[in-house]
Amino acid sequence: MIDTDRTRALIDRIWNQGDLDAIDELYSDNFAGHDPQNPVQGRDGVRAWVEESLTAAPDIHINMHESIAEGDMMVLRWTASGTLQKDWRGIPASGQPFVVTGMTMSKYDGDKIVESWANSDNLGMLQQLGVIPAEATTG
Hints:
Layout: H1 4-16, H2 22-26, E1 27-34, E2 40-41, H3 42-56, E3 61-70, E4 73-83, E5 97-109, E6 112-120, H4 122-128
Parallel strand pairs: 1-6
Antiparallel strand pairs: 1-2, 3-4, 4-5, 5-6
């Protein structure tokens, strides 16, 4: 049975407190992340992704909403917010705040995540950062 409280506490430690050691407690060494914008392999891949994200937006905060666990799977709906302070993946540092919503479904082996699938509103985030123009409204 998945301990959702433990998972949520470790996600909080990783993202909101910058405790990268918690990655070892949550992710398996052979982790496979299937996010179309950010495929990640292995625990070292998770660490590199988190470090890159926290460097670009040091004030990033993950707000966790509902979570559902059944068998060896858990789904978590979340909102991330922060301010882009450093260049990130070809996007120039703008000092602009952003809010992005998403969901992640994770597969566990024991108490470690071995695989996950994530989708988020990256288009909305890119619009907030001024990379892509917001859709014009007519009226």
